[in-house]
Amino acid sequence: MADETRNIDISNFLPHQSPMLMVSRLSYIDDTHVIAEFEVHETCIFLHDGVMAESGLIENLAQVCSSVIG
Fold first, then answer.
1. CB-CB contact of 23 with 38 (8 Å)
2. Cα dist. 40→17, 47, 57, 60, 69 in Å?
3. Which of 8, 29, 32, 34 has minimal CB crowding within 10 Å?
4. Residues 13-55: tens digit of each pLDDT
């Protein structure tokens, strides 16, 4: 994997829109790896009493994995 960090527009890879978009940016992507970032805001629909719900973590993981395929 390259050491350089890039900000890749996730909308090029996923059809999701707010509030279901659970990836803020892709820092790196190639044929076998992806590094994604997600900024959790107070308005996140998966945030309950300041804690990310398990379903939010699963959705984040699913979107990160899907971005490799996209």
1. yes
2. 15, 8, 11, 11, 24
3. 32
4. 778 888 888 888 888 888 788 888 889 988 899 999 999 999 9
43-54 CB burial, b ≥16 within 10 A, e <16: ebebeeeeeeee
Supply the pLDDT for residue 9: 73
Structure tokens at 38: 């997600």
Rounded CA separation 68/49 (Å): 32
Cβ–Cβ under 8 Å, residues 28 and 35: yes
Neighbours of 17 (CB within 10 A): 8
